[in-house]
Amino acid sequence: MNAPARGAANGVRVLVVDDDPQILRALRINLTAHGYTVLVAADGSAALRAAADGHPDVVVLDLGLPDLDGTEVVEGLRGWSTVPVIVLSARTDSTDKVRALDAGADDYVTKPFGMSELLARLRAAVRRAAVSTVDGEAVVTTADFTVDLAAKTVARTDGAEVHLTPTEWGILELLVRHRGKLVEQKRLLREVWGPQYGTETHYLRVYLAQLRRKLEPVPSRPKYLITEAGMGYRFDG
Asked: Is 175 left (phi over 0), alpha (psi -120 to 50) or beta?
């Protein structure tokens, strides 16, 4: 068995996502030889489950997956995690690169690639992540409902699914990701509606009222979706 290479990142967990079994095998062998702990997934759904269960330190992700596009996987991860994502793809069109980076990917390596280059990108991604908060919880449970940030679902304690509109989900996701912290009105508007928004606070009042009707035991006395008057909103749960 080969000894780990000098300077190896022992204990660093890498999730490799690719539907090509030969690439998965080659990367598992090479990364293991360099001291990484390697998790693998052959499609997008398996990748999201592996990320939630295995808590990788970095993800290497192919865009061309059989069930989900790689950008959808990045978006799913970004619902609850800041884990670094390195896209590994045969797509050379700059549009694909921009879409992946806009979705939240941290780096982009084009196939075919050199192993030394990928290792350098991995080391850089892990270093950058070391200076920030790594990741949160995929599932947030309260006394009345559960929010699954990876699956983008909400269910009551009795198992009944709560149906949210895309806008309602966008607001809830942002608040839950920053649980216990104030999220300013302007940030909510810009991240949910778009960068051209920032003053339409009446939108927030309408949608928060709808969310409270769906989630709060007593909507008029919210205990989860809290208003900070004149500033923004906070999720307590």
From this structure: alpha
Give the C-alpha distances (Å, rounded to integers) separating 223 from 52, 80, 111, 233.
27, 22, 50, 12
CA distance 146 to 144: 7
Contact 168, 211 (CB under 8 A): yes
What is the reported pTM?
0.56
If you write DSSP's letter for every residue of 192-235 in order, what string do you get?
HT-TT-SS-HHHHHHHHHHHHHHH-SSTTS-SSEEEETTTEEEE
Question: Where does the pLDDT of residue 129 fall: very low under 50, low under 70, confident under 90, or very high at 90 and above?
Answer: low
Tens-place pLDDT, residues 37-82: 999 999 999 999 998 888 888 999 999 899 988 899 998 888 777 7
- Extract the tokens encoding 29: 């062998």
